[in-house]
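Quick one, probably user error.
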């Protein structure tokens, strides 16, 4: 684990120690609004360590969706003019994206959230420049995040169980196989989503 990941994990642990589930959700909402590499993954794994696969996934999904909703609203209210000026050279691509959103925005947001190629906070920032409505953005984000969230949270929960030494060899082997299967499935889903996005861009 890198020094940066260790520092982030320590910060999340402090938030949990101070506020329990509410502390985790609060720090995770903020974390999912910050475009820092790997931060969303660390939040997922930490949720698994503290709350197990089921509740860790639930808490992480709630906080990620809340973070995305707040980030989309904030970008549209305060940052959109600045971002549009900064991306003025990509105006044609942004116009194409908006046309695609008008035609089938729900499918595009769902694919963006499923694909690991697009960092979560940066995708939210990009979506703030489109015409997608907040409700559609919210539910497609929630659905699109499920595969990746469960895989990473499960990995964290399994790692915590193995580290505690309470698992027998049989359960450890099954758990490792489960983690690998989850990661492979998530990557497969992400690859399909990425290919669908590339196909949509080419046809556009």
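Nope, works fine. Designed sequence:
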């Amino acid at each position: 684990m890198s020094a940066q990941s260790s520092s982030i994990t320590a910060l999340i642990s402090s938030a949990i120690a101070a506020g329990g589930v509410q502390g985790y959700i609060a720090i995770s909402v903020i974390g999912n609004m910050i475009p820092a590499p790997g931060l969303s993954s660390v939040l997922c794994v930490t949720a698994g360590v503290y709350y197990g696969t089921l509740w860790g996934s639930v808490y992480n999904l709630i906080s990620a969706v809340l973070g995305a909703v707040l980030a989309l609203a904030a970008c549209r209210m305060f940052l959109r003019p600045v971002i549009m000026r900064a991306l003025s050279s990509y105006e044609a691509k942004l116009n194409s994206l908006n046309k695609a959103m008008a035609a089938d925005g729900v499918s595009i947001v769902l694919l963006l959230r499923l694909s690991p190629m697009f960092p979560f906070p940066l995708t939210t920032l990009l979506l703030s420049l489109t015409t997608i409505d907040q409700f559609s953005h919210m539910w497609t984000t929630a659905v699109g995040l499920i595969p990746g969230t469960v895989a990473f949270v499960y990995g964290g929960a399994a790692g915590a169980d193995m580290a505690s030494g309470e698992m027998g060899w049989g359960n450890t082997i099954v758990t490792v196989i489960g983690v690998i299967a989850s990661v492979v499935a998530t990557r497969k889903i992400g690859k399909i989503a990425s290919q669908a996005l590339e196909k949509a861009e080419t046809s556009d």
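The chain has a mean pLDDT of 80.
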